[in-house]
Design brief:
Elements (H helix, E strand, L loop, with lengths): L1 E10 L4 E4 L1 H11 L1 E11 L3 E6 L5 H13 L7 H6 L4 H10 L2 E7 L2 E2 L6 E6 L5 E13 L1
Antiparallel strand pairs: 1-8, 2-7, 3-5, 3-8, 4-7, 5-6
Length: about 140
């Protein structure tokens, strides 16, 4: 059985980290799937999906600081030279982290640790409306 659910998310860009665990858990619960996988995928090339211990401020600051070291906002990017925009770093950061995540579904629930949340990180330079697709594949109970 395959079920697909789309989630619309408003983000602020600039390394905005948004906890989407509840929305993904809801999609899994309503899917009727008891054993399988949930793939969470961001549509677009300047945001990414991962898991973290979601702590507004502390961890969010650390993630932004780490990405600033890896792909600095003010570095020179060919993307910006080609397209005359300002988000080359956002494309690099998103590609390093990746657009998707796969989570096992066991006993009709996501198998996440106590301090593990699913997050969308929007690296773009402006607010955006993001679409995240959660596709669940598995068996009914």
């Amino acid at each position: 059985m395959v079920k697909t659910h789309k989630i619309q998310i408003d983000s602020n860009g600039n390394c905005d980290i948004i906890d989407i665990t509840g929305q993904i858990a809801s999609a899994v619960a309503s899917s009727g799937i008891s054993a399988g996988t949930a793939t969470v995928f961001n549509i677009g090339s300047t945001a990414a999906i991962t898991t973290i211990e979601y702590e507004p401020g502390l961890v969010n600051h650390d993630i932004a600081a780490a990405f600033e070291k890896i792909a600095p906002e003010n570095a020179r990017y060919e993307h910006e030279q080609t397209w005359h925009d300002d988000n080359g770093h956002a494309h690099v950061r998103a590609s390093l982290l990746g657009p998707s995540l796969t989570i096992p579904i066991v006993s009709a629930e996501l198998t996440l640790g106590t301090w593990q949340q699913i997050v969308l990180i929007d690296f773009d330079t402006r607010p955006r409306k993001r679409t995240v697709v959660c596709q669940m594949i598995g068996e009914r109970s």
